[in-house]
Amino acid sequence: MDWHSVPTESVLDELDTDATGLTSEAVDDRVAEYGPNELRRGEGVSPLALFVSQFQDALVYLLFLAAALSLAVGFLPGEEPAYVDAALILTILLANGVFGFAQDYRAERSIEALRSLSTPTATVRRDGRTVEIPATELVPGDVVLLEAGDAVPADARLLEVATLETDESALTGESASAVKEATVLDEATPLAERRNLVFMNTTVVRGRGRAVVVETGMDTEVGAIATQLETAEDRETPFQREVDRLGRRLGAGVVALIVLIAVTQLLITQTSPTLVLLVAITLAVAAVPEGLPAVVTLTLALGSQKMLERNALVRNLPVVESLGSVDAIVTDKTGTLTENRMTVTRVLAGGTVHEFATEDSPVDDSETTPEEGERLATDGDGGPDRSALEALLTCGVFCNNAELDPAAATPPDPATDGERGSAADDGGDDFRGDPTEVALLRAARRADVEPAGERLAEFPFDSERKRMTVVVADGEGDGREPTAYTKGAPRVVLDRCDRLLHDGEVVPLTDERREEVLAATDEFAGDALRVLGFARRTGIDADADADDVEREMVFLGLQGMIDPPRPEVEAAIADCRGAGIGVVMATGDNVETAKAVGRQLGFDATTAATGADVEAATPEELADILESVEIFARVDPSHKVDILRALQESGRTVAMTGDGVNDAPALRNADVGIAMGIRGTQVAQQASDMVLRDDNFATIRDAIAEGRGIFDNIRKFVNFLLSANAGEVLVVFAGVLLGALFFPEAFGGNEEALVLTPAMILWMNLVTDGPPALALGVDPKTDDVMSRPPRGSDASVIDVRMAGSVLSTGVLLTVVGLWLFFTSIQETGELVVAQTVLFTFLVVAELVRAYLIRRHYGLPVRSNPWLLAAVATSLGLQLAVLYTPLATVFRVVPLSATGWETVALAVGVFTLVSLTLSVVVERVAPRVTQTAEP
Fold this sequence. Notes:
Elements: H1 8-15, H2 24-34, H3 47-53, H4 58-72, H5 83-104, H6 110-117, E1 121-126, E2 129-134, E3 143-147, E4 155-167, H7 169-172, E5 178-179, E6 197-198, E7 203-215, H8 221-231, H9 238-267, H10 273-287, H11 291-309, E8 312-314, H12 318-322, E9 328-331, E10 343-349, E11 352-355, H13 384-398, E12 403-404, E13 431-432, H14 435-446, E14 453-459, E15 467-474, E16 482-488, H15 490-495, E17 497-502, E18 505-508, H16 511-526, E19 530-538, H17 546-549, E20 553-562, H18 569-578, E21 582-586, H19 591-601, E22 609-610, H20 611-616, H21 619-628, E23 631-633, H22 637-649, E24 654-658, H23 664-669, E25 672-676, H24 682-687, E26 690-692, H25 697-742, H26 744-747, H27 758-768, H28 770-776, H29 800-828, H30 831-855, H31 865-883, H32 886-890, H33 897-924
Helix pairs in contact: 4-5, 4-9, 4-10, 5-11, 9-10, 10-25, 10-27, 11-25, 13-14, 18-25, 21-22, 25-28, 25-29, 25-30, 27-30, 28-31, 29-30, 29-33, 30-31, 30-33
């Protein structure tokens, strides 16, 4: 039911209640019908299921098959199981599974965070009495009482109010407090303007009210957000999908290859079943890049540490890679692009307009004086500008119910602040109360205006009066006289005035001067400023009523305020656009405010769409709107999700930033959800993939740059690992066939006549290839990382050029390696010597391959000391295999000086041919982007 659009009597009738509340019997029935007033728990993550999922992959299945075949050899007559090979394979699988589980396991706490926001108690009318009950026991029809400081326990329709205002910024995105009225609204009124309703988990900032509960639990507005979070699907990154496809293709290809070789061996070369099984095991091990999952995870983890140093806390590792492909950012305005606090930015005092700075400096040096061009006196010299400004700001201080919050005024801790600082940098949120009144106090403090006085009376603001007046005995000593200070809607305040302060003097308020003030009011409002008028009257009777006090007043001026843009955001948005990333603002604020902030930040503010436009548009029409519109105002959570989906269906990779509860569904559905760390709600942070510790939009730019660099590095080590595996597969495939056909004396009757053993291949894939691959993962970014456009959402890590590079490298390794292998057999007649030479050649050639890949990126050899250390480590480990008792495990022999000379010659040939092919390819097909492979 549209509770905001029907008369109060109809609401009460629909809920079968009245203004005095429910009886205990009625409550019992409704508890049974509606259940507790709480948010439903999401399904938890089973640790066991998550651990098992680490092994549900085609590559893993293939390795399990290889381990099983290693043991199956023992069932053949006269054979023993290959326990060492099976143990190595299973150990690697377990290690990768445990590591992946440790990285992936985190409870889905979005719904739990929403639950934690629920208020513990509520004040209600039950059985004709006012009682306090647990908020979970509220039911539709309950009448709740609200006062300043209360958290609203459920969605409720207001029955009566007394200057009631609530803070709904976390739900609607509105930075200003919402003034509430007990009235009937149009059915089409958007959520942010439903001033006759209060919503669960918002806060009463002033006044009091009485309301009837209309929705509880999952039926509330917050519950609707919880439902969207609960039903949102986990999104795989493009790289995750690609690795999955790679596993399936490798698995199918290896099975086909095993069958082909098995048939060839059994029918053509008459190879024994034992050797057929050993070759199958070797091929399975050779084809699978065992180290790839661990290297990917470690690279992403190290990348996340780099981002943390830049104040970006990554909560979901695969998103590190996704950041590199982001080409659209949908950002909330409040708290993300802006300071998330109302700030006085312009005043009219003494007939002069002054621009206030938004930082700690009291007033900007560029203030304007349209009439005489005078400059604002800020040195306290008592000039007319200063006295008029002081009078205006003094009125704002006295006519104010906000107060200093000692708990929030703690000085910032330099040890925990980020590089760019935090909200504490500008004094922190050290006031509490209505955001508008807090802005007035801050404005006075920035101008060093701190008046003293004692409040004698107050005539509060309400929706009919549209003004607030206080009577103050200001000044010091016994001679203080009562002075009335009024603030409110400018036209209302002007109607109570007959004079105004101009050029330091009190002069009559003529029609001409009234029009000048109204023109300034319209100009302020045209720039989306919230405008208040201020007046005072001295020498009054402190016991007089409002009508007597609020007359014949002196108009002091105007204060215009807005939630101002964060100073660094404009440059950050420009940087993102320069990198080919579109930025869209989606806010709950009204259109004019959104456009005004957008203009200051460089958005195209000529047009803007609203939530109603989003709701009325088809997905195709919304996609068309997004081609030309950058600002969306008056949007609710479902509209933000619609915008995201329209962009995603257009092939865009979308990052969503936000801080409020209302942002959580979009954060959860985005390719990259980015929450604010300082001002962000726990709900938004738990729904996100990344949290900005400094709430700084510029940090997103830095994170994207890191993501692009990480994607480049992923391409490097994927190329490196697949090139090595391609060479190993082709060496085993061609070597066994050629050996059985042309070297029958060495291969024909030898049950262990393998070109490479499974243990050798596992050693290469994990020990000698692993450290260099990981070192490639921490390569420095190239200088042009943010000057190229983002890669497309369908861009593959393994593109045609990389596939060609991998295949050509595999063929080259095979040709050179088998030449080395068969030459060694001919010269020595020893299979084990030939295996050792080939084994060592492949290790050294693959290490050289790492530097050949980096060469194309223009990175100096010494730019990555980790790679130098990794290569040295891998060579050291290879020497340990050759010259220590490990040689027995791997069935190799120590290489002689002649053997090393042969290996060095073969590596030289491989390097020379690789460089020649790279130069030819670059000349025939020039490098288009820095991510192309040699």
